[in-house]
Structures are given as C-alpha cells and as structure tokens.
Amino acid sequence: MPLPRPHGFTWTELLAVLAVAGILAGVTLPALGEALARHHLRAAANDMMDALARTRATAVRRNHPTTLCASRDGRACAPSSDWTQGWIGKDKELSTIFEAMGPLDGRLSVGRRPGRHAFTFDPNGTCPASNQTITLCVTGRPATAISIVVAKSGRARRKTATPEDAAACASQLSRKR
C-alpha cells in the first residue's frame, strides 16, 4: 500500500509566494501613499471652501463682521498665518468662535499671496479690498496645487493654481507635529 502524500505547501512554494507579495507591495505602496495624500488634499480644500461659506453666512445672519484665520490652538488667530495648523471662524464683534478646524495632514502645504493674513467678511457678506488667494498642495508636488480665491463679493471659488502659486506652495517645508 502506498504512503499517503502529505497536504500543504513546500518551503519553496511559500517563499515564492512571499517574494511575489513583497514585490507587489513595494510597487503599490508608494502609489497608495500618493493617492492618500491627494485624497487628504481634496478633503482639506473642501473643508476650506465650507469654512469660508459658513463664515460668510454667519456674518450675514448675525449682522456682524466675521473672520476666518489660521490658528495653532483653535482659540485664537495665529500671527504666523500657518494654515496647516488649522483655522477658526470668529465673530469679530462678539469675539466668539463658531468654526474650528484642526491640523491638516502632515504631507500638505498651504501657500498664500502676501498681504492680509485672514479672510474678513462684512455683515453684507462682502470681503473688502481685493481678491484673496490661498493655495493648498501636497508638499513637493506643484501639480497637485488647488487655489481658492475669495472675491470682493465674498464668494469663494476653486481654480487651478497659477504656476507661481503652485511652486510657492509645493516648496513649503513639511512640518513636524
């Protein structure tokens, strides 16, 4: 009577499967990381657009000037204007905070044009002075840049970043948390 053949895999078969799995993981993980960073970028841009809309609506509803500004601690506007640390919406007349966003993903950068450090909305919903632009991107990747422009009318819109804004955003140093 012949001996029964054992069931299972040989060491050679297991090592071959592990080698193929390792090669596939090595090829796909960087692409997965890039896709995840782009997802966080789109989410941050959506959050910024929503915060701008809520800040403007709050100014009109309360009939008080409101401000959306960068904040490190979620309680006060930051003088450094590092939007990657988060932002707050604040009623300027009552000094109350009605909007708070925590820090962005560490792979993201935010650049803005020189000038004002915050978006201020009047009670009629306008944003005085000239258009303001803020650009979000994946650090080191100018092709990912998304600009948000707030017009004097107070309306925010998303647009493709100019090459200068994209380069300035992408060149921001990544920060440590």
Order of strands in the sheet with most strands: 3-2-1-5
Total number of β-strand segments?
8
The biggest beta sheet, please? 4 strands, antiparallel
Residues in helices, as a percent range: 25-40%
Strand percentage lies at 25-35%
Number of helices: 2
CATH topology: minor pseudopilin epsh fold
Task: Please state the average pLDDT score.
Answer: 87
The helix-strand sequence is HEEEEEEEEH
The residue ranges in which pLDDT falls below 50 over 5 or more consecutive positions are none
The CATH class is identified as Alpha Beta
So, the CATH homologous superfamily?
Answer: minor pseudopilin epsh domain
Class computed from helices, strands and strand pairing: alpha+beta
The assigned CATH architecture is 3-Layer(bab) Sandwich
Radius of gyration from the CA trace? Answer: 24 Å
How many structurally independent domains? 1
Global outline: elongated
Tell me the span between the first and last alpha carbons. 69 Å
Please describe the topology of this protein:
Blueprint: H1 11-62, E1 66-70, E2 87-91, E3 96-101, E4 108-112, E5 118-121, E6 132-138, E7 141-150, E8 156-160, H2 163-170
